[in-house]
Amino acid sequence: MSEGVLVVSYGARAAAMVDLLERSEHDVDLFIVDKQKNPFNVERAEEHIVDPSLSVDKIVEFAEKHKERIDFGIIGPEDPIINGVRDKVEEKTSIPIICPTAEFAIEGSKVRQRKLMEEVSPEMNPEFKVFDPDEYSSKEEVKKAVFDYLDEIGNKVAVKPDTPAAGKGVGVWGDHFTSRGDLFEEFFYPNFEDGKVLIERKVDGEEFSLQFISDGEHLIRTPAVRDYKRAFEGEEGPNTGGMGCYKAKGNILPFMDESDWMKAVKTGEKLHEALKKEGNKEDLRGFPLYMAYVCSSDGIKVFEINSRPGDPEIMNILPVLKDDFVEVCHKILEGNLTSLEFENKATVVTYKVPWDYGREEEYKGDKKIDMSEVKKMESEYSENLRVYPAALEMEDEEYYAQSSRTIALVGIAETIEKARSISQQAVEKIKGADLRYRNDIASKEHIQKSKDHMAELRK
Question: Containing H/E element for 32?
């Protein structure tokens, strides 16, 4: 008898989940609500619909239509989680959903994240201040308060809106502004008009992330991953959703110490315990904590906290999961997920993206791409390569790149260098359109630079 699984999808992250569900020893029927007409999902789904807004109401409607055939659901992107997709699907259909409820979608408030960290590991919070519109009566008054705070901690700060995608988003000194005037007018005040804004001391260091999986009671950690946010090589250009990332063999990265890893894990565990006390612990099941850290001269600092799997970071983890993913999902729902086993291999993810991704200019050329060579390579490399379409659609048997990250190539090998080689060979096999990628992801030079930077900071 087959099992029906509802998947809410956006991009390559969800394609990786679909891949593992299909590889299960269980017979699985997939019911997918997709932001785009992802050909990977279309090919594998029993039922597939596209809803560009991924509205909770549309997801609920789809789940109700197929509720007699769906045994459980799993959610990839953050917006439906923040908007309460689990709460509403479970209420209307009784289908159990693997993601946190809206109450525990702490990605929805950066202020809440910082306050939670103050409770469990204050030493891992960078210095910060919350500015609340209710506490100021004029623009000039809050401007004075902001400048007074900068006098106190210095200009090297990050400006963060409380809620996702408000105003102009996150701005960082030296990257997005180099004067107090621009800081205030271009990043702080446009966000402040919509709600609370944090100003945090900018932390110099090397970043990594951990993703935690919970059944509500138990928290399972996964290996550390390094992401590349900037659009262009050499850490140039604007931040993106992530141009690629790497994982080493084992749990830590080349620039980390074992103590870095243990402190990061311990903080995740403390945070999980604190959240369990706030409500029904079953509301935490899924990927309640995907935490970004910075190794600095002042120890480990928490950069941000999310309540969903990472994109692209989850693609470093899922392909080397040894457990049957459907069995993992059952254990999450039953409350007995006590361990996971991963292959002791390195993984490297490289995204191929449109030429204009991260640029202000618009690419107006041909968007058709040829996947034949990369599909052949995927077949030849068997378990050492995964090809996960993201913003890619198929029409009349032809593939067309969309406006965001197009396709993720995951190399799997005994070393970072070999995994990187597989990933980049695969990138080169994708022909047509005007796509590009970062050639420095997981490069020897970049890894050595990170190691040298940490050696200097640890002095």
Answer: strand 28-34
